[in-house]
Amino acid sequence: MEIFVYSDESGVFDVKHNKYYVYSEVIFLNKNNKDVKNKKYKIINATKKL
């Protein structure tokens, strides 16, 4: 079984300058699901730039 994990964070742990800290994670349990979502993301991202 292949497991693909992508994570991202935004902000710093500094309540004086930042009110929020955001952490997200996406997990795919196989390559096909990862590839399908990657293609959808690329399409959305490309149309957003128009």
Describe the structure.
Helices cover 36% and strands 28% of the residues. By secondary structure, it is an alpha+beta fold. Strands 1-2 form a two-stranded antiparallel ribbon. It is flat, with a radius of gyration of 15 Å. The termini are far apart. The model has no long low-confidence stretch (mean pLDDT 88).
Largest sheet at a glance? 2 strands, antiparallel
Strand order of the largest sheet: 1-2
Head-to-tail CA distance between termini: 38 Å
Mean pLDDT reading: 88
Q: What is the strand tally?
A: 2
The unreliable regions are none
C-alpha Rg (nearest Å): 15 Å
Q: Any descriptors?
A:
50 residues, 1 helix, alpha+beta, 36% helix, two-stranded antiparallel ribbon
Short description:
The chain has 50 residues and is an alpha+beta fold. The protein contains 1 helix and 2 strands.
Ordered list of secondary-structure elements with their pairings:
Blueprint: E1 4-10, E2 22-28, H1 31-48
Antiparallel strand pairs: 1-2
